[in-house]
Amino acid sequence: xxxxxxxxxxxxxxxxxxxxxxxxxxxxxxxxxxxxxxxxxxxxxxxxxxxxxxxxxxxxxxxxxxxxxxxxxxxxxxxxxxxxxxxxxxxxxxxxxxxxxxxxxxxxxxxxxxxxxxxxxxxxxxxxxxxxxxxxxxxxxxxxxxxxxxxxxxxxxxxxxxxxxxxxxxxxxxxxxxxxxxxxxxxxxxxxxxxxxxxxxxxxxxxxxxxxxxxxxxxxxxxxxxxxxxxxxxxxxxxxxxxxxxxxxxxxxxxxxxxxxxxxxxxxxxxxxxxxxxxxxxxxxxxxxxxxxxxxxxxxxxxxxxxxxxx
Length: 311
Prior knowledge:
Low-confidence stretches: 4-55
Distance between the termini: 32 Å
Helix content: 10-25%
Largest sheet: 5 strands, antiparallel
Order of helices and strands: EEEHEEEEEEEEEEEEEEHEEHEEEEEEEH
């Protein structure tokens, strides 16, 4: 039996003061009543409540002016920012580099920019800090705003001060450039591009482009499998509950197994049996599900592809 796991030991660099940390809007005072422009309702906004509703963002924003760009032997590029809080950043052909209108550009020395960094990634403790941004935005003098945010199912952001109107003309993509649907942005870290705001409360805008920074549930499930699996008789075995719940399935524990369900779809899996139920039909695994860690049932890899295919 062979097991493959990954353990990362890393420390996080001390962040420069140029990082922007989202906070609740200071303009709404505690107990202040605000009427929306349509006259539909009054709302009493408590600043503290708004602040507590804003989750700590996984992505951070760094700003600066590029002092120098050098190409390293690895093929990556390294940019430096001078000043009171200097830092460096790496980028390559896979880095999303756009201007504030969402158009592809080439970074040049002297450009003002904002970059968005996944703060959950390990970083070496070094000064000046060095970042590897997922997205870099070069600023131009033309009208165009870029904003890091999160939106709920009503397309209201976490600070409750902006609603976005998504249309068929809105370009919604992930970091790989793949087109996504409007529901793919819900409760995800996104970057929106827009020009104008409608003065209402909450403010409204129709973004021309949205980039989803978070990986999809499928990508996260594959990442789980990459770092948590066993190989038994040549069959890759993966954690049943972890991958099922990551894909939005409900997992109900039963004696010697589990029921995996979503809507009208269900699977009944029994440890020690290759046969499993798929609604009213029976199917077979190439290797029987088994308890390989305390409280963790593992099933053949093909079950992951089955769950994704049912999406």
